[in-house]
Design brief:
The chain is 42% helix and 4% strand. The protein is mostly helical and 439 residues long. It has one domain: Glycosyltransferase. The strands form four sheets. A three-stranded antiparallel β-sheet has the order 3-6-7, with helices on one face. A two-stranded antiparallel sheet has the order 1-2. A hairpin with a 5-residue loop joins strand 6 and strand 7. Helix 2 packs antiparallel against helix 3 and helix 2 runs parallel beside helix 15. It is globular and about 50 Å long. The chain starts with 14 loop residues before the first helix and ends with a helix. This is Mannosylglycerate hydrolase MGH1-like glycoside hydrolase domain-containing protein. Keywords: Glycosidase, Hydrolase. It holds the Pfam family MGH1-like_GH. Belongs to the glycosyl hydrolase 63 family. GO terms for molecular function: Glc3Man9GlcNAc2 oligosaccharide glucosidase activity.
Length: 439
Amino acid sequence: MTTCTERPEVAHRTIEDLDRAARRVLATNWRQHATVPAARLYPHQWSWDSAFVAIGLRHLSPARAQRELESLFGAQWRDGRVPHIVFDPHVPADAYFPGPSFWRSGAVPEAPAVPTSGIVQPPAHALAVWLTYRADPATARARGFLSRLYPRLVEWHRYLMTRRDLTGSGLMSVVHPWESGLDNSPAWDTPLSRVTPVPAGEFTRRDLDHAAAADRPTDTDYGRYVRLARDYRDAGYADSLRVHGFAVEDPLCNALLAAGEDALASMAVELGRDPRPHRSAAARLTGTLTATLYDPAAGMFFARDAHTGKLIRSYSVGGLVPLVVPGLPVAAELIRTALGDRFRLRDACPLPSYDLTAGDHDPGRYWRGPGWINTSWLFWHGLRLHGEPSLAEDLRQRLLDRVRDAGFREYLDPLTGAGHGTDGFSWTAALILDLIRAP
């Protein structure tokens, strides 16, 4: 089992070594149609993982990157949702909990034939599709990649902007912490406190077979996750505040949705379609996101509890990720916040998932302090987008150095660089390949 302090026997001495090692991770985790996040801990296909994997794979094999995304959208529900897990029928049923027998997607008329979960993950897919297309337009055109994925992405975004606009605010809500991508963030503690956990004796966790308990959510929090997922399932995956004990308007997800609409506008132009609806949606989402979730005094975006209408004033990295939105009016303020003591952009690496100055900051526990390569990659992308090439290059170099020393870990202590979670993590490898090749 991988322990929280384990380091690779030999660090990757050169960028060439790092590149070869990243390729090996992606080769090991490839399953002929998609890439699993990690062979042991996450043995199926995960939604936003595949988006980040494709961003790296486009440099090695654009066709394989396209297949990665096509595989995911092949499991799209008829209502437009893209499930957070697509289960591999060749993997033993008890390899991961909650598995297909828990989610029971086969009983839902809108679900695909392949077993999936019923919740979603952050909508990073349109950005990934557009970057993948641009890596090799000729291959993409020959395969009909963009013409097939574009309408699926439109339906995906429509689901989020309609079925998931639970308050009528114009913002989408996540209805489970797993949907946020920042699963165990302290930002969710207050809304989760209203949820009665399922007793630990009523389910069997598989994550603790492959990762240290100190790195993972507690049994109580896991019991709340199970309760929320079970209630959603038992309601037939209907979206309503009456169904969801947890419902949050999340800045990270809404920012990726806005950035995704901008990417869809570019796709529409490429396909000879009208980009104006996507540009309007991107502008509307950007304006509502900023007016609703941004706090000028804090220089930060905060999530909003859909049940109470109150901002959740927790300084998580999700409040910085809106930097990925083109034309974000408060980009300079977000960068100043990232440079401050809470996130220490110039020396903490990866960006901490949670406020370094908070008394409950935990540098080793899942999303309660450690840094992840994907959220740092998103912020790096935003720095380049908003005219900060020096800060972007500094972050890029330090991310490469961190992973060269620690290996392809799931997450890392942002101050010491110690690796945590599982090893051989696909999006770490994929995004490192992208950072190596950044112009």
